[in-house]
Amino acid sequence: MIPELVTDRLVLRPFEREDLADLVAIHAEASFWWYPLRGPMTAEETSAFLTRTMERYASDGFGIEAVIERSSGVMIGWAGLAIPHFLPEVLPAVEAGWRLSGAYRGRGLATEAGRAAVDWGFSAGGLQRIVSIYEPENLASGKVMEHLGFEPYLTTTDPQRGIEVVVTELTVERWVAQQRT
Known about the structure:
Blueprint: E1 5-6, E2 10-13, H1 20-27, H2 34-37, H3 43-60, E3 64-69, E4 75-82, E5 95-100, H4 109-122, E6 129-134, H5 139-148, E7 151-158, E8 163-171, H6 172-180
Antiparallel strand pairs: 1-2, 2-3, 3-4, 4-5, 6-8, 7-8
Helix pairs in contact: 1-3, 4-5
């Protein structure tokens, strides 16, 4: 069962087919997919993305979710936990990730969404370790990972794109210690 996670400002909920129009608009922002695509997704690419995401709910048992701003009910991006199939050298692993529409960046919302996903992963999800992956140029994502307690684990190359990526990790032991402070 894919959880619905509620924070002070956000709701993370499983994607539905009806989300396609909102997701197409968000994915059309060049900055949304700058890392790693260096540009937007087309409507067809977004439809395939949504289909793949929903299929992963069944095959992987979880996956990224729609991020909804609670006050407006507007979808502002996506976040959550997923298996990083694109980077086989770190498998088995579960990755925490997030992407927000440009108007919603810089307000702590990615950290809020990431924290909800990580907390669920370690508590209800029973995970022992979560990774998060970013390109070194993407300083904002790296900062979110730092805020969540992730530490550098490995620098490697994305085999599909030939782009350097940094893999960070957070263990359940470190997460528990953070809860006490």
